[in-house]
Amino acid sequence: MQREKAKKTKAIQRRASMACNLSKSTDPSADYVGKIGATVQLKVTGTQGSAVIVAGRYAGQDLAAPWQFQVKAGVNFLILLVENSVPRDWTTIQEDCGSGAQQTLREYRYDPYGASQSFEILGN
Amino acid sequence: MKIWIGLGFLLLSSVTSNAQTYTYPYGDEVTYHTMATTPAGARSKDALRQFLGIESGTNVTKAALYAAGKSGYDSLLHAAEDARMDKQTGSTTSSSGTTSLVSKGVVPQVLGFAVEHGNLTETDNNTTATFRGTGLGVARLLVGAQQLPYCAISDYQCESGFKRFLTGTSFSVSLNTAQTTPAGSSASTTSSNASLFSGTANQVSGWSLRYDFHVRRKFSDAAYLKQWQAAIATPSDAAKAYLKSVEDTFGKIRPTKEYQDWLAKYVLLLGDSSTSDEATFKKVLAQAVEDLIEIAKRQDSNFSTNAQNLLTSLGGYIGARDKALNEVVNRVTYSVEYDNNRPSNQPSQSIVKFIVSGRPSASEKWLLTLNSSAAWYNEAPAQVSVSRFRYGQAALQLDRSLTASSSNLGAALSAGYYFQYMADNSLLTLPSTALAPGTSIPLPGNASVLLNSKGTIHIGQAQVTFSIKGTGIKFPVALSFSNRTELIKASNVVGHFGITYDLDSLFTKK
After folding, report:
1. Interface test mutation site (partner A, options B21, B219, B265, max chain A beta carbons within 10 A)
2. pLDDT digits (tens, 9 = 90+) for B283-330
3. Within an 8 Å CB–CB cutoff, is residue B177 touching chain A?
4. Could you tell me if B51 and B29 are in contact, meaning their C-beta atoms sit under 8 angstroms apart?
5. 20 to 30 A from B237, CA-CA: which of A82, B183, B366, B488?
6. ipTM
């Protein structure tokens, strides 16, 4: 029974990694790399509290709900303003890869006096 | 652990200082503690990289505070102040002397915030000037703002119990500024009741002490979370401005080789056994911030200006966020107030008032305020027999914001009903310089007369308060209808207008 469950989990993870459009960058000037034109859907979660994206910018343009962007060529700056109802709660920024799968882009402790988080995204 | 914003730049200049705001010079506060107490070899490179990275909002704020110094911190406070003031003008009608029927349940939070710089707020209503202050403001004057620093409205952990007590405590002193002709002066040969009821110039017409008890919501409350989610998205313009300023300040630095080298150097250093003890860890970290700022300055000639702008926009955002969350966090407030009233030509009186204020629903713009009070004479005069208990009173007021919080010209509508039961006839004191009513005969000395004023008073009022965004200026305009006044049994229709100005904005200007 447990083996079946582990197999299912692995299958979900595989599907997730296949559907996600960002991957860790080996280039130190960027955090993540994506194919130019690929759509990245963002989401956030809190551990104890409720987390929401309040504002975002990518490649010099404001983002709007539902907080997605298309990867552009070169290294571009992505910045999100994420609020959490519980100060100092562990907060996760994820790429929503569809079909219930997601990958974590960053985990951090929410700071009400510095609620932004930024990334460098390399498009190629 | 207290985690307070502010004066981070002071900490950086003296890594051994014992100040309590943003306790550590750089990095997430909790992670810092873990890192500093972990043997250097056990500090992972990935964790150190994230701890040092300028992509974290905490590091952005700390680095900007370091770069901009005291003026940057002032900019942050001032911007937050302005944004919070807009909250008050947009959503609630603050007490404005005689133009308002009820005492409001919340002493505007801006007072508490602004008084940290030592200022008071003046409210003018043609005849009375009221100076208000909070316990927190007085304490900050005495011990310094950094000892009681800024806390976000939903950051309960940031506030000490003592600070919460000070925030809830407020006081006021009212001065009668009317330039009326005193009764019995040479200019008046036919004295009238009207002139007797007028005040004399520049006298203290009352003082008050008050405590506001805020009923705070629990983070785990499902209703709170729903309302929080609805409210938190409100300051979107301020949020966008803040993100843009972060991008302008640090966006260019991040991909540069110089920054990558800096990161690699300090990841190595802080992972080295030489930084195992906390003191060395802290010292190296302080040096890291200093080096980072130098790199930023080399990469961007406008860096210092951008850092200053960043703090201003951060202040604007956190102030706007407080404004948006105020309705959710402090949904119900209970207040107890003691007023010592010294009306012209009447014996001084004490009034104890109980106030409840809240919003029926945080998603709506209504504010409901209920007052009840009891008043008595401080001393019963010997000449006449009158009950020391003067009146009992109850009032209800509904306020609704008519404009969006982002509007430059705000408007709030208020409607109120006031009931007062006069337990006995009113006592009027005639000074020795006055003429006997309706005559030109001077009185031999102070005298007391009783007016046939026992009974009930009903007052209805409609009020619109206009406010100008970012200035702290409000114009209340009201029309009230009453079956009688305290001293005269005749129906009365009165128009009121006033101007209120919050001195906080003046004191926080650079």
Report:
1. B219
2. 999 999 999 999 999 999 999 999 999 999 999 999 889 888 887 887
3. no
4. no
5. B366
6. 0.87
